Amino acid sequence: MSLFSFFSRIKTDPKAEAQGEQYFRQALQYHQYGNQDDAILFFTKSLEVSPHHSSVFLNRAGCFMIQERYLEAYDDYRKVIDMEKNKESVDIERATSMALQNIERIKLFISFEKKSGDTVRQQLSNDGLEYFAQRWAEILSNQHLANDLDLIKYFILEEIKELEEMGGIHQEYALNCGINHSEFIKVTENNNTGKAFIFFKSILCCFSRDPLKMFKIRTAILNKLISLSITSNSGNNISNQQIDYDGGMRLIEAEVDIMFIVKNGEVMYVNNETPHLYEIDKDGDMKLDGRVVNFIFKDSNEVIEIFVAFDDQDSYSMFTMNMGRDERLNYVAQAIFQFMGQNNITNVFSATATYSSQYHYPFKLYKKNDKHFMVNNSQSQAYLISENIYKNNNADDIKSEFWGMA
């Protein structure tokens, strides 16, 4: 029997029916392989040429459900019910009972959207994504997860596992968000996170007619929660653990390299992938071919120093010719924040802090074994840095300590 059996009471075009069935079969294949985007596309194509099948609306709604596009799913389930009530469907098997069951599953989300959707959408418009995500991450944490760091982490793992199973850009985020795959792949539903689950899905439901916007909001809130999950119980300072990042930190668009990151006097990162940036000077020493700027970001609780290497041509333009120096430094500062966000490096900057910034420049950089010595032109300021050493004292003392090493 054809998937598209129909009653004679509704006049249909056999060619359209055949084309509709072909699209329907293609959609089912995409759905079975986990490609919900293309499944939705082909269910829609099927309905465009052959719109009298409640089963197609039911199947498309199922794909919307997997992607948590609940408003669109609700529309399709209502369409199924109305079609069969009005005898507009040509399908022999009725789908109303299944549509009603699924409406029951999402009724809390739909109810929230009807009551508060306009308000929530207006908040995003007024606040912007960054503050909007911060607002709802804090509400989730404080009101629905009891500020319990273990519970917050478990909720994050549940959500990331769900995203991984959704495929597409959702899966891409899950695999690149900084959470190890082995941590979330075996996680099971936790009853203690149930209220947070319902609340989070209700907020997202308000944007479910725009799946890309919903994805951006979802991941922005999760990123804030990830930051909260590694916050200590005693305050809002992110742990100064070393950064787990493979490779050198090259800011490609800014054409600079992050050499070191120091937070509250503790070394978090040393770039060991930069031997090509050094030259051997006339004394046989390894010397950076360029200059270093110390980007200092401060708030009331922390001081973050990020040492950035500029090549020789850039250094000459900025510090000798004084050409576009401030604009260039501001651009690189923005690139630093973007790099941390894009690479899910969450333990450098706090999501809730407001930073002031300043620049100390320029520094010559020398390397000997695993230790690095930086000094400014006037010899008034110097640093000694390695994986476990950070000194910023009298330039003469640091100089003698570095050059005196074997």
End-to-end distance = 86 Å
The major pleated sheet works out as:
11 strands, antiparallel
Order of helices and strands: HHHHHHHHHHHHEEEEEEEHHEEEEH
Indicate how many domains the architecture comprises: 3
**What is the 3D form?**
elongated
Organism: Pseudoalteromonas nigrifaciens
TPR repeats: 20-53
InterPro entries: TPR-like_helical_dom_sf, TPR_rpt
Protein name: Tetratricopeptide repeat protein
Q: What labels describe this entry?
A:
406 residues, alpha+beta, Serine Threonine Protein Phosphatase 5, Tetratricopeptide repeat, 11-stranded antiparallel sheet, 15 helices, 11 strands, elongated, disordered N terminus, TPR-like_helical_dom_sf
Characterise the protein shown here:
This is Tetratricopeptide repeat protein. By secondary structure, this protein is α+β, with helices and mostly antiparallel strands. It folds into 3 domains: 14-105, Tetratricopeptide repeat domain (Serine Threonine Protein Phosphatase 5, Tetratricopeptide repeat), CATH 1.25.40; 115-229, no CATH class; 249-403, no CATH class. Helices cover 51% and strands 17% of the residues. It is built from 15 helices and 11 strands. The model is unreliable at 1-9 and 231-240 (pLDDT under 50).
Secondary structure blueprint with pairings:
Layout: H1 14-32, H2 36-49, H3 54-66, H4 70-85, H5 96-105, H6 107-127, H7 129-144, H8 149-166, H9 168-176, H10 181-184, H11 194-205, H12 211-229, E1 249-251, E2 256-263, E3 266-270, E4 278-280, E5 286-288, E6 290-298, E7 303-311, H13 312-320, H14 325-342, E8 356-368, E9 371-376, E10 382-386, E11 389-391, H15 395-403
Antiparallel strand pairs: 1-2, 2-3, 2-7, 4-5, 5-8, 6-7, 6-8, 8-9, 9-10, 10-11
Helix pairs in contact: 1-2, 2-3, 3-4, 4-5, 6-7, 6-11, 7-11, 7-12, 8-9, 8-12
